[in-house]
Please model this.
Amino acid sequence: MAETRILVGKGDQACYLEGRYANRHGLIAGATGTGKTVTLQIMAEGFSDLGVPVFLADIKGDLAGLSQKGSGESKLQERAIKLGVDNYQAKSYPVVFWDVFGKKGHPVRATISEMGPMLLSRLLDLNDTQSGALNLLFKYADDQGLLLLDLKDLKAMLSFAAENTEALGKDYGTINKPTLGVIQRALLKLEEQGAEYFFAEPALKLQDFIQTKNGQGVINILAAEELYPQPQLYGTFLLWLLSELFESLPEQGDQTLPKMVFFFDEAHLLFNDAPKALVDKVEQVVRLIRSKGVGVYFITQSPLDVPEKVLGQLGNRVQHALRAFTPKDQKAVKTVAETFRAQPGLKVQEVITELAVGEALVSMLMEGGVPAPVERAKIRPPASRMGTITEEERAAVMQASPFKGQYDKVVDAESAYEKLMLRAQSKTSETPVAKRPVSKEPESMWEAATKSAVKAASSQMGRQLGRSLLRGILGSISKGMK
Model:
C-alpha cells in the first residue's frame, strides 16, 4: 500500500502528518533562527514524495535548494536513522521557479480584473471611501464590457471617471475628483514598485501549479527576494493566488491526499493593518478551500500573528522556540502553550522557550481529525540541499522547465484603455472615426459586454468574461459558471 503520510519528526513517539487531514491546514511558528525554514522544506519534500504539488515563497533564496541533491553528510544520516527515516538518501526534487519580476523564474502575471477591487484596495492602501469609488469603477467596467487588464487600463478608467463624475453619479452613486486623485497617486506609487510587471497578460494559468513529474508533486517556488521587501504587494499577491485557487478548482471533499498544498510564509504581513472585511474574507477562503482539496500552511514567528478565527482552522501544528524576554513575550508564550492538547508530564509553557534549533512541539491531526497530544520532537533532516543555489544551477532548472517560453512575451490585447481612447477621439473628431463608427445611441450594458467578449476572445480574460461577469469571494472574476 502506498504511503499516505509524512514523517515530520520524532520524540517519544513519531510525529506523522496524515495526508487525509492535510487539507485541514496547518501552522509552522517560531522565532527567527529556530528552524522554521527546514521544517517547511521537509514538509514540501514530504508532499512531493506523496505526489502532491506544492507552492511556496522563497524570501531568502534558501528554499531553492529543494531543486538540488542534498549533501548526504554523515551527521544527517545519523539523525535520520535515530528518527526512524526509512532509506534516507540525498536527492533533489522537481522544481519550477516563478518570479513576479521575471528575473529568477517564469513571470507571474494577473490582470487588474482578476485581482478585483477588494485586494486592489488593500494593495493601494485605500480607505473605505476610496475603496467604494474603486468598486464603482470596477462595476462600471464590468457593465460596459471594458476589460481591465493592466495599469494603463485602470489609469484610463480613472481619467474617464474624473471627466464624467456627474454622469457616473446618476447610475452608480456619488464619486468626486479628490477621491479619484488619491487613487491615481496610489497607483503611481504602486507602479514605482514594479507592479507593471505583474499586471499584464498572458496571465498565469493556475493549472500550471498543479503538476506532477515521475510520480512526484512539482514544487513551485516563487523567488520573492525582491517582492518580500514590499510587504503590501507580497501579502496581497499571495492572497490573490489563494483566492484564485479557490475560485478555479472544483469541489472534491476529503480525499486520501490533498490536490495541492500552499505555504504562506511570513503570514503576519497579510494580517498587519488589514481591514476587518479583508480578514473576514481570508477566514472564509481558508475555511472553504478545504473542500477544494487545498491545504494552507501559515509560517510566522508567533501563532498570535494569525487572527483567532483563522488560527482555529489550523489543525496541524509545528511550534519552534519562542523567546520570552519581556512580560508581553511571556504572556504570549503562556497563550500559545494553552492552545496545545496537553501531554502528561510535558510542561509546554517551559519547553517552548527551551527548544533547541531543529526541535519543535508537534501536534498533528490524528484519527477522527482531532489534534494528537503535543510531542517534543526533533525534526527530520531534509534530503535536498539546505541553502541557496548558484545562478548556473537555477538556469539549468529553468532550461528544463515545461513552461519555458510560455510566459516570456507580454501580450497587449484590446481592453479598457483602447476603448476609452476611441470614445475620447470620437467626441473630439469632426468626422466619424474610419472603420470603427460609433453608434448614435449609447450601447446597453449587454450590448457592450457581448461586443467586448467577442473582441477579446483571444485573450484569457476575455474568455473568462465570456463565461461569466460575476465576481468571486474576494472580488476577482469567477473562473466558471455560477
